[in-house]
C-alpha cells in the first residue's frame, strides 16, 4: 500500500494498493511524498511533521438547528476538541468567514448566530488537515 | 428534495457579519436582504417610496 502526502501541509492526499509507476510519478510531480503505509481511511489521518497520525476529533453541537430569521433568535454552537492536550483556540468557518473560538480544556462556544433573512449558515472546521468533524447547518426561516 | 447543487448555491449566498456580540447571517440576494440594503442606502423619500411599492408588490406575488 502506498500513501501520498504533502510534506508542506501534512495533508494526506492519496492512497493506493498498488499504484503504477505513472501514478507514483504523477504524485511526485505534484510535490507529494510517496511512502509505504497500512490500509486505512485517509480522511481520518494526516502526515503532520512527516509522520502518520490520526486527526484530532472535533464535535460541533448546536443548541438548535432551526432559528427564526428575525435577528433576535440565535443558535449557540458548542465546540469540543478531543485529546489530552487540546489547543487554546480553534478556527471555524461560519458561512466561509473565519471565527476563532477560545477553548478551556478543549471546550468552547462559538459566538451566537442569528439571521436577518432566511438563509442557511454552515459551520465547518477551518483546518481539516489537523482536525476532523462533521459540519453543522443552522437554518434560518421567516415565520412572520 | 433539495439537490446538492441547490444546497451548495444556497450556502454560498449566506454572508455573516459581527454585530452586537453576535454573528448575524443574511442572504443579501433574498428579497428581504435586497430590501434591507436599499433601506440602508441614502435614498430620497420619493425613491424609497417607489422601491417599497415595488417590493411590496413582489412580496405579494
Descriptive labels:
heterodimer; A: 144 residues; mainly beta; Immunoglobulin-like; 2 domains; five-stranded mixed β-sheet; four-stranded mixed β-sheet; 1 helix; B: 61 residues; alpha+beta; 3 helices; 2 strands; flat
Count of discrete structural domains of chain A? 2
> What is the β-strand count of chain A?
15
Please work out how many helical segments of chain A DSSP would assign. 1
Order of helices and strands of chain A: EEHEEEEEEEEEEEEE
Distance between the termini of chain B: 23 Å
What does this structure look like?
The model of chain A has no long low-confidence stretch (mean pLDDT about 95). The radius of gyration of chain A is 19 Å and the shape is elongated. With about 140 residues, chain A is mostly beta strands. Chain A has one helix and 15 strands; from the N terminus they run ββαβββββββββββββ. Chain A folds into two domains: about 55 residues, no CATH class; about 90 residues, Sandwich (Immunoglobulin-like). Chain B has a domain of about 35 residues. Helices cover about 60% and strands about 15% of the residues of chain B. Chain B has three helices and two strands; from the N terminus they run H-E-E-H-H. Chain B has a two-stranded antiparallel sheet. In chain B, helix 2 packs antiparallel against helix 3. The mean pLDDT of chain B is about 75. The chains are: A mainly beta (about 140), B alpha+beta (about 60). Chains A and B meet through strand 12, strand 13 and strand 15 of A and helix 1, strand 1, strand 2 and helix 2 of B. Strand 12 of chain A pairs parallel with strand 2 of chain B, so a sheet runs across the interface.
Amino acid at each position: 500500500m502506498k500513501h501520498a502526502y504533502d510534506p508542506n501541509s501534512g495533508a494526506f492526499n492519496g492512497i493506493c494498493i498498488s499504484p503504477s509507476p505513472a501514478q507514483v510519478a504523477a504524485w511526485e510531480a505534484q510535490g507529494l511524498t510517496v511512502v509505504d503505509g497500512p490500509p486505512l481511511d485517509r480522511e481520518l489521518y494526516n502526515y503532520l511533521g512527516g509522520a502518520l497520525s490520526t486527526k484530532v476529533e472535533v464535535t460541533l453541537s448546536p443548541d438548535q438547528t432551526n432559528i427564526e430569521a428575525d435577528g433576535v433568535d440565535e443558535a449557540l454552537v458548542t465546540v469540543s476538541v478531543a485529546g489530552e492536550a487540546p489547543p487554546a483556540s480553534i478556527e471555524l468557518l461560519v458561512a466561509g468567514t473565519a471565527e476563532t473560538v477560545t477553548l478551556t480544556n478543549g471546550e468552547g462556544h462559538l459566538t451566537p448566530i442569528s439571521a436577518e433573512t432566511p438563509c442557511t449558515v454552515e459551520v465547518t472546521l477551518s483546518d481539516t488537515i489537523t482536525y476532523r468533524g462533521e459540519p453543522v447547518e443552522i437554518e434560518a426561516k421567516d415565520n412572520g | 428534495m433539495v439537490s446538492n447543487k441547490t444546497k451548495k448555491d444556497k450556502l454560498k449566498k449566506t454572508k455573516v457579519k459581527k454585530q452586537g456580540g453576535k454573528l448575524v447571517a443574511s442572504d443579501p440576494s433574498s428579497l428581504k436582504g435586497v430590501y434591507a440594503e436599499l433601506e440602508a442606502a441614502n435614498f430620497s423619500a420619493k425613491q424609497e417610496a417607489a422601491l417599497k411599492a415595488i417590493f411590496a408588490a413582489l412580496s405579494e406575488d
